[in-house]
Fold these 3 entries.
Entry 1:
Amino acid sequence: MDDSEQIRNVIQLYIDSMNESNPDKVKQVFHSNAKVVGYLHGDFMEMSVDDFAGFVESQQPSPKEKGEDVVFEILSLEKEGTTALVKIRDKYLGITFLDTLSFIKFEGEWRLYNKLFNVEN
C-alpha cells in the first residue's frame, strides 16, 4: 500500500470516528500532540486530541445511528516525504466544514497532526 492510499485510509478512519461517535478511533488517527482549530458559530475553538475525542463521543446518538452519515469529499492531497496536506469537505452534524488536515508519518504510520476547520455557509 503506497503512502497516498495509507493517508486515504486514515481519512476514512477519521470520518468513521465521527460517524460512530467513537473516541478511540479519534485517538487512533491523530498524533497525541495534534490540535483541532477553527471557528464554530463565531467562537474560536482550539482543542487537544482528548478534547476533540470527547466532543465526538458526546454526539449521541451517533450520526450513523440517526441515519445521518458523515458525507465527505477529498478535494486535494499533496504529499512531500514524511508530510502531507489534505483538504476535505465534510458534512457533520448538519454543518458543512472545509478541513485542512496536515499529516506526519510518525514511527512508520501516517497520523493527523493538525486540523484547521472552516464552517461554510
Entry 2:
Amino acid sequence: MGVMSGEYVQVSGRIIYHLLHPRPAVLVISMGSDCRPGGMVAAWTVSLSHSPPLVGVAIAPQRNTYRLVKESGQFTLNIFGMDFLDKIHALGSISGRERDKFAEVGLELEPSRTLRVPRARDALGVLECELEKIVDVGGDHDLFVGRVVDAYAKKEFFKDVYDPARAKIILHLGKRIYTTLAEVMIVKEHDAR
C-alpha cells in the first residue's frame, strides 16, 4: 500500500463502495413459486445496455430476493422520492422471508403492466424486467441481468429525465444516511470531433 498524503483518508473493507455513492435506493420486487411477493432495497443497480435495454442489480445469494428472482425469472425496479424514505429504509432493514414486510410498513403493491410480478403502487418510476442471466462475479454478490420489457414514470416527475426539484429521488450515501439532489447544472454541448 502506498503512502497517503495528508489530504486523503484511507478507505477499506465494507465501506469502499461508499466512494461510488450516492446511488438511488431502488426497491426490487419479485415473487417465488408460491406467488407471495417479496423484495429488497438495492443501491447496487446499473444500466448495462441501450439495445437491448439491459439493467443489472447485485444481490447476495443469502437474500430471500435472490431466490424469488431466480424462481420467477422476473423482477421490477421501483424508484421512490424522499416522501417514502422511512418505508424504503424499513424495507431494506427487515427480512420478508417469514412475514409480509410490505404490509408491515404500509407500502401497497399492484399488478405490473406486463409481468406476473407486482410493482409498488406509489413508485415514481418502474422498470419491469425479465431475467436474462445471473453472473457470478466472484464476490459475495451475483449480478442479476434483466431485460427491460416495460418502463414508465409518473409524468409530473419525469420528462426525459427526472425533475430533481419535484421527484427528490432517494439516494443512499451509506449506512443509514440518505440524500437527494441539491443542485442541477446543465453543461453546454461540446463538439465531439
Entry 3:
Amino acid sequence: MRHIRFGAAATAALLALSLAACGDDNDGGSGSGGSAEDSFDIAFIPGVANDAYYGSVACGIQAVAAKSGSTVDVQAPKSFSPTDQIPILQAVIAKKPDVIIIAPTDSKALYAPLRQATSQGIKVVLVDTTLEDPSLAEAQVSSDNIEAGKVAAAKLVELLGGKSGSVLTVNLSAGVTTTDDREKGFAEGIKAASGLKYLGQQFSNNSVQTAASIVSATLAANADLTGIFSTAAFNTEGAVAALKSANAASKVTIVGFNANPPGVQQIEDGTVAAQVVLKPYDEGIAAAEQAVNALTGKPVTKEISTGAVVATKDNLQSPEVRKYLYSFDCPKA
C-alpha cells in the first residue's frame, strides 16, 4: 500500500486526498505493478504550501510512485523562503527517506542542508528550481524559464499591437533561479522590441502588498507605463490591485506567470491579458522517474527541461491549454 502524508495547511490535506484517489485509480485496488525491492520512501518538499502548481508536481511524482508501490511524503513550507523550508528539510532528513525531491527556495541557502542529506546516503533530485551548484543532485528538472520569459515578452509585444511606452517587470526575490531566468529571457525579448522602454525589474520579496506598492509608484513616475510582466502569482495579484486602485487597468497590459485557479480567473475576468503556463505535472513525472532510476542503478538524465504554453481568453478552453492548468486534482490513469 502507498501512504501519502502531507505537512502544512488545509489545502495540503486536500492534495493528499487527491493523490490517494489517484493511487486507487492507478492500481485498481490490487496493488502496484512493481516489485517489493523497487518500493521506496520518496519525500517531496515543494517551494510553498497551498500552491496548485506544486499540487500538479506532486501528482506527477505520485503517478510514477504508484507503479512501484512507493510512498510519497509531502512536507511544504508555509512561505516561499529558505527560513521556512530549511527546518522542514532537516526534519525530513532525520526520517532518512530514500530520496528527497525538492524545489529549493534559494539557490545558495539550500546547498548546505542538501549536502547533509547526500552525506547520509539520501538521493536528491531538484525540481522546478535549482541550486547555484547543483552537482550534489542526481538530476534537475525544470522548465526552460529563459525561453518562457522570451515567450512572455513576445506575447506582450503582440498584445500591445505597436503601442509605445514603458514596461516593468515585478519579480519575486533575487536568488530564485526560475524567476531570475524568467526576467532574463523577458528582458532580452522586450529590449529588442521597438517603441518600448524597459524599466527593468523590481522585487516584491513574495509580498502582494509590496508588488502593489511597486506598481503604484511606477505608475506615478511613468505616465506612459503600458505593460507589466509579472514573474509569479504574488506579483500579479499586487499589480492587478494597484492598477484597479489607480483606474489604470484599461491602459496597462499585464502578462503573468500563473495557471493556478486564481490566475485562470484573472484571464477570465480580463484583469490579466495572458498567463505563461508551465508543465508541472510533466516535471513531477520526470523528477520521480530520475529518482527511481538513481535508486535502482539505471541511467539518469542529469538535466531535463520542460516547455510552456501561453493562456489567453481566446484559447483558455482548448485541450492543449486546459491539460496544463495547475490543480490539486490528479489526472486519472
